[in-house]
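Incident log, support desk, overnight shift.

02:14 A customer reports that sequence design results differ from what the structure should imply. Their input is reproduced verbatim below. On-call engineer (initials T.W.) acknowledged and began investigating.
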């Protein structure tokens, strides 16, 4: 009988379970089941109409193969158009079909989240069956969170962004867990480049995840790093080439398209780089409604999740240290970015660090031997705690869908109440795309021109309007008024000039105010009417 090798035995004890080729990985069926359950849940909560914020715009873009606001989301648009048209062709409304595209992205994200958490648990020495069980904890903590379900039940880009983020982390974890002493090969590097390219072609914040994981993979490359970097760059080119669609649309406008998109290299770069959002950088300024969402549904989970991610690199056992450092950097880097990005609706930007931090938490706990032995009991106790904390979350999702349905009916009735078939309708809100949807998808009141004054701060929008209508309503406005960046009182001179300029055309001018609700005739033939038609 051969004598045992004490050196090999010691190395085997130190080697994480995920790195042992003989150990079976967590069962894939458990992740597929988690994703399928999430899909059924999200589809049941999808309203038949578009949601709030950018949802009407994305519905129109997906339905018409148009171009959304910067930075464009070309892969989301091209693939989503095929999905949405197929679902609509099967009998669904355009609104539900577009919302279902987000539901599918949410289901993929949940499946990847479970698989990723299970792999991290296996790397900490947890048996595959227990790893699959414990990996349900981050799924339960996220799946019905109202901030997350607002992205999975309305036409938005963030559910697919989280699907990419969790899938990229799963792929990188698998690569770093390989036993190949020489690190990843050229094919693996090309595949990683493809993954990164998909993320960057969808959402710029993918950089906060792709960069640290790429450095972790590069650290294993050794002297072969030039060839592996080259392979990764080649792999990234294919998904990034989807931006050629945006360039083509800049010269050949779609029926529905971001109005400030200009043809040419300069206009394309301004659009793709998102330079128009640079004024948001350097501060944190959520709206009051978003502050309430953050306090109730994000920060109570994000703080411990981010704290666990920060502590995880210092755990004695578990996944490869390079991976733990990279994931901690991804979580903390994304959080720092959001706190320095002053958009009024930042809640969705916290979803990637929240999800990754939640996935790390069970693995951090399982790094301690007593926790591994008590895995089933810990899973049951934690699941009960999560379910108790989120007991009202399904009600929030159901009420949100009902609210969207009521609002869409209100806007539809107000649109039908406009007593003219020709003229201009001023609707200063992102929801102005709902009125375009009535025109484009339903064919109603096609003679009305809907305008959002905020967009007229862009010279390209004014030029395009003048080319279509024969005049620029803001031709007499001082140039300094176009430089305002907010949407409050600083916009008043532009609003007043817009009404006067449109009225000089001789066509009636209406203002659309669903928050009152009211649709009023402001000017007709340059004269303010004695009475306004309202609802």
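02:41 Re-run completed on a clean worker. Output:
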């Amino acid at each position: 009988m051969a004598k045992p090798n004490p050196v090999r035995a010691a190395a085997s004890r130190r080697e994480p379970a995920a790195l042992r080729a003989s150990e079976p990985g967590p069962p894939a069926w458990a992740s597929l089941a988690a994703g399928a359950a999430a899909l059924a849940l999200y589809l049941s909560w999808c309203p038949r109409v578009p949601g709030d914020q950018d949802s009407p715009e994305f519905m129109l873009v997906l339905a018409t193969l148009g171009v959304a606001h910067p930075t464009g989301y070309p892969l989301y648009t091209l693939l989503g158009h095929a999905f949405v048209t197929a679902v609509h062709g099967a009998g669904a409304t355009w609104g539900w079909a577009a919302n279902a595209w987000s539901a599918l992205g949410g289901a993929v994200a949940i499946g990847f989240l479970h698989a990723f958490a299970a792999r991290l648990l296996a790397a900490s020495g947890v048996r595959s069956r227990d790893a699959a069980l414990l990996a349900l904890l981050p799924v339960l903590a996220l799946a019905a969170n109202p901030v997350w379900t607002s992205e999975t039940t309305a036409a938005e880009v963030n559910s697919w962004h989280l699907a990419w983020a969790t899938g990229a982390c799963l792929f990188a974890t698998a690569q770093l867990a390989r036993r190949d002493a020489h690190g990843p090969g050229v094919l693996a590097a090309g595949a990683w480049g493809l993954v990164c390219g998909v993320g960057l072609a969808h959402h710029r914040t993918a950089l906060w995840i792709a960069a640290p994981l790429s450095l972790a993979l590069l650290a294993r490359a050794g002297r072969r790093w030039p060839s592996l970097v080259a392979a990764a760059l080649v792999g990234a080119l294919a998904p990034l080439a989807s931006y050629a669609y945006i360039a083509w649309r800049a010269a050949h406008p779609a029926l529905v398209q971001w109005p400030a998109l200009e043809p040419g290299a300069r206009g394309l770069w301004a659009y793709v780089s998102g330079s128009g959002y640079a004024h948001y950088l350097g501060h944190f300024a959520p709206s009051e409604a978003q502050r309430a969402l953050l306090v109730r549904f994000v920060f109570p989970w994000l703080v411990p999740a981010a704290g666990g991610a920060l502590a995880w690199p210092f755990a004695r056992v578990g996944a490869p240290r390079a991976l733990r450092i990279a994931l901690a950097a991804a979580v903390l880097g994304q959080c720092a970015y959001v706190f320095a990005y002053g958009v009024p609706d930042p809640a969705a930007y916290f979803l990637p660090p929240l999800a990754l931090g939640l996935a790390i938490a069970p693995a951090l706990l399982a790094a301690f031997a007593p926790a591994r032995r008590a895995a089933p009991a810990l899973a049951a106790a934690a699941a009960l705690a999560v379910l108790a904390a989120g007991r009202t979350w399904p009600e929030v999702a159901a009420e949100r869908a009902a609210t969207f349905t009521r609002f869409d009916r209100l806007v539809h009735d107000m649109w039908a109440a406009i007593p003219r078939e020709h003229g201009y309708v001023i609707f200063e809100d992102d929801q102005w795309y709902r009125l375009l949807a009535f025109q484009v998808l339903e064919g109603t009141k096609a003679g009305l021109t809907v305008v959002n004054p905020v967009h007229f701060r862009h010279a390209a929008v004014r030029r395009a309007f003048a080319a279509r209508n024969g005049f620029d309503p803001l031709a007499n406005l001082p140039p300094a008024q176009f430089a305002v960046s907010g949407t409050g009182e600083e916009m008043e001179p532009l609003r007043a000039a817009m009404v006067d300029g449109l009225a000089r055309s001789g066509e009636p001018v209406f203002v659309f105010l669903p928050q009152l609700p009211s649709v009023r005739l402001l000017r007709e033939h340059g004269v303010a009417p004695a009475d306004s038609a309202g609802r």
